[in-house]
Amino acid sequence: MKDSISNIVRLVDSVTPVSVELQSIVDSHEQPFVIIDRDYRILAINPAYEKTYGVTRDEAVGLPCHKISHNNDAPCHESGEDCPHVNLFEVGKADSCLHVHYNADHRVCQVRVTAYPLQGSNGELYMGEMIQQLSGPDERRINGRRMVGQSPPFLACMDQMKMVAAAQAPVLLQGETGTGKELAAHFIHSHSMRREQPFLTVDCTVLTDPLFEAEVFGHARGAFTGSVGDRIGLFEQADGGTLFLDEVGELPMSQQAKLLRVLESGQYRRVGGKRPRKADVRIICATNRHLWESVSAGQFREDLYYRIACLAIRLPALRERLNDIEVLAPDLLGPVSKTMNQRFKLTPAAIERLKLYKYPGNVRELRNILFIAATHSNGEEIDDAVIDTVLQQVARGRDHQGQSAPEPVAAQQAETKSPTGNTRGSLHDVEAQHISALLQKHHDNRRLVAEALGISERTLYRKLKRYDLN
Known about the structure:
five-stranded parallel sheet, Helicase, Ruva Protein, domain 3, five-stranded antiparallel sheet, Beta-Lactamase, Rossmann fold, 19 helices, 3 domains, globular, 18% strand
């Protein structure tokens, strides 16, 4: 038995000591484990907890649990998060929920906390909390981007994605433009049994009727003019893995019928081919439409809807989780600092100012705002005055262009000054010039440019077209 078990944890005078039995329970766990009393105070921790959160037992005992794991002065439930502490001490039963914690390096990690009722030798009820890490600080990062948040809507969505990842059925991701549907699809794939197999994307907005069939299913030699050889389609390339159909609601009815046939039978033919083929592919679809409304309007097949919506997940809009900006904005600012070779940071007042905006463009718009704010900052620190100026320009641009403007931050026409005092031109020009410089730096390698900007290659393609940089 460990030496620590033989000694009752020495606590501050205001905290009741735990028994040897409870300390033995703590030390028997390989994962972080902590015992907490009714007043949220830590009574005992195990070595795994010490290592994960960078505190010793002497430092942790007597402190509120939320102070160490959340860096908060108030309990989680007062910030709107699920809290097993409340449920356990009110009902006396075990409870489990998702949380976002800060590790020893002060980096965000997603965890599942499971609380158990424990009774000490003094008859008091305590909470034993086991902490299971679900994803590390960089596990959710895809092409420089990752899913970040700690609000109840975000954590509930992450919990859903974790659960559907274990299944094999098709998934339908629904959410507004800019909510991170492609990132969510990557997350589901990377947490599934198919994680070691291909993940391929089909942008349904850019494929014409004949091109869709040739791109997805491939074509045989001589199938049409210019087809000088056989071509393997994306469906075949993704065998064993996942095929992500982005903006599936944009598919014309003729393409919907072709997609339905392969989903129902599991078989397909290359364009111009005669031999039926099969591939083991999981389908994840995404749309920013209310897809059932499209079904009701006769614009989307009802049978296809039921086929792809076996597991449906709605990604919350950023305005529904504005408190996430506290952790999301600094994370998005990291790639901006990298591309501009200057380390930027937001003041607390700047973060509070960012929380006052509603973000019709969601996370994508927040990323653009931070990029523009960095270019207009007079130093490494971005304060609320800079943020306020950028947001006012965004609002003026939206009023001028209308609500349908896809990315209003990048399309402003207001003049501003650079840190050197020179007139920099429109915000449209700022982004265009920055992308042009990255293209030159990376010798027109679009993949590297997209990674430097923290966006997908498809988004980069649309920006290149908009700014006439092709």
